[in-house]
Amino acid sequence: MYKIIEKRELAPGIKLIKVLAPEIAKKAKAGQFVILRVDKTGERIPLTLADWDQKEGTITLVFLEVGVSTKKLGRLNKDDVILNLLGPLGNPTEVKDYGSVCVVGGGVGIAAAYPIARALKEAGNKIVSIIGARSANLLIFEDEMKEYSDEIYISTDDGTKGYKGFVSDLLKDLLVKGYKFDMVYAVGPALMMRAVADVTRPYKIKTIVSLNPIMVDGMGMCGACRVIVGGKTRFTCVDGPEFDAHEVDFTELVRRQRAFIEEEKKALEIFERGELL
Questions:
Q1: Which pick of 38, 93, 95, 273 has the fewest CB atoms within 10 Å?
Q2: Are residues 192 and 111 part of one domain?
């Protein structure tokens, strides 16, 4: 069991927990994730590492409460325990000095983009960050991203903070203004990452995305996380989670993410009636 030593609400429905997991913290790298199970009746869900501290032996996870499992996790408090926690999983971000890198984070994906921006900055890159949310009250990790960014730009769908529009729109504006990027990293909802890939494709900028399909075992055995990349089937857990954005079949990814949407809705209704523990 893994003890929660800190819990905070970053925005409506978005929670941060710091968990005591020294073995995971000791090996964690940017871009990796863990799989957890809240309790005996819970499903296994993947969450990208938002931070870790080797000295105190903790990892930090940020999540949006959307389904039964994340709502169960959100109900836990400081000193409560998570039943199972496995990681770090997935291939870490390839960190080297590329030159000028634009790191794009959308929604909860900003927290996952943060350690990538930090690692790339520490490797000597110039970091231009673009972070966005639907509204100003849903924007997270702004200060954390600023710390490792040479420049930072903010967008909100409704215009309540920064640029009014999507992160992909803001990225396009920067490119039109003459910004030159050697690499773009994007982390967020699938549709956001697809939009970023569409923006960078005409400029032939290498673009990496961190994919988030349905996942079960996290070790390449179940096949639930399969995605199509470059016309071939890949397993996100062992081949990813980062892939060349211009080769990802985002239509297939979105379709698979929505495969159990009706079942998820029914499960949530049952849970919120207090009938599902």
A1: 273
A2: yes
Q: Using alpha carbons, select from 109, 261, 130, 251 the residue that is nearest to residue 189.
A: 109
Q: Does residue 221 form part of some domain? A: no
Is residue 252 helix, strand or coil?
helix
Q: Give residue 87's region: left, alpha or beta (phi > 0; psi -120 to 50).
A: left
Q: What is the mean pLDDT of residues 250-273?
A: 90
pLDDT at 272 (0 to 100): 87
User: Do 23 and 78 lie in a common domain?
Assistant: yes
Are 2 and 77 spatial neighbours (Cβ–Cβ below 8 Å)?
no
Residues 6+ apart with CB under 8 A from 55: none
Domains held by the chain: number? 2
Distance between start and end Cα atoms, the chain: 18
User: Which domain covers residue 198, as residue numbers?
Assistant: 100-210
Q: 60 lies in a domain?
A: yes
Last residue of a domain, one of 155, 179, 210: 210
Amino acid at residue number 89: L
Q: What number is the average pLDDT over the span 52-81?
A: 96
Three-state secondary structure call for residue 184:
strand
- In angstroms, rounded to a whole number, what is the distance separating the alpha carbons of residues 265 and 245? 30
Please check whether residue 114 is in contact with residue 122, taking contact to mean a CB–CB distance below 8 angstroms. Answer: no
- 92 touches 64 (CB < 8 A): no
3-state SS class at 110: helix
**Side chain identity, residue 74:** G
What band does 277 get if pLDDT is binned at 50, 70 and 90?
low
Beta strands in the chain (DSSP E): 2-11, 14-20, 33-37, 45-53, 58-64, 81-82, 84-89, 100-106, 126-133, 151-156, 163-164, 183-187, 207-210, 226-229, 232-235, 242-244
Phi then psi for 85, rounded to 5 degrees? -150, 120
